[in-house]
Fold:
Amino acid sequence: MGRNAGQISAELMITVSAMVLLLLVMSIVNGTLQSTWNGQKERLEASTAANQVALAINRAVAGGGGTQIKFNNYVGGGIMNITIAPPRAVSAVTWNNISSSTPIITNNTNITGGILMNQEIVVRNDGGVITIAAG
Amino acid sequence: MVPFANKGQLRGQIFSTEMMVSFSVFLVALMIFLYVWNSMYSNYIEEQSDAKMQVVLIGISDAAVMSPGDPSDWETSVGTGASSYGFASARSVLSPAKLYAMQSYFAANYSGMKDKLGAAGYDMFLDVQDTSGSTYYSFGVKADTTNSSISAVSAERLALMGSDLVKLRLQVWRVRGRSI
Structure:
């Protein structure tokens, strides 16, 4: 029943299998954490982008007719688009289709298509109607 | 003299107590790490949701004391169909008629009206008090701030109503863990 020279013992096989299993577990955990982290990072980017536009629109509404809010709408490189999501929200979407929306206090906007990004923009209250144009 | 009398024991030694202990320690450490990560991740999401709630709070409270709403006579004309709502007859001067109208709209349809005010996805409570704490108007659902599962932010604005100095207090809140 003794082992021949060069023969691998059952104990060694079990140990190696256990090690490989642990490596697999670590690899799966690492992959999961990385994907949740990346998703959350993108969600934060989208949330920040939507928040700053929503804040400007709300300020323009609260200020009344003639109010203009000018600011640099700088967003992260991961943002694909910022739009008005009817009836009362600003929505930002990332290239990986992760979106975040922030409620606003008006549904009276004249904003079609995407809101300009990475440049100075002016949010204007024209008699109650909110418009956004390049600054 | 002969501790290893049995050859079978000798061969099995590598897979004995030390190996089991080391695997267990590794697995426990991995579980602790995952638990801590999960907790950090949840906190991160909560912070993000709270930041958004602050934007909502500022928007509604600004409009409440600074804007008459759109149209400015919404309380007598379009009612619940206004584009935006404000309670000011002039900047920082509150209109009792607008507050009274909103109070009755909220009593009839809390969920729909809070969304129209700009608090979609959240809950809100607003009241107007004089400086001695007597309430003139209040509407919405107040947060139970003793409940640790509730996250709330609040703002207080000074304004005039008639000749009285009043405080407009707004609270926006949500149940933690609810995706916004």
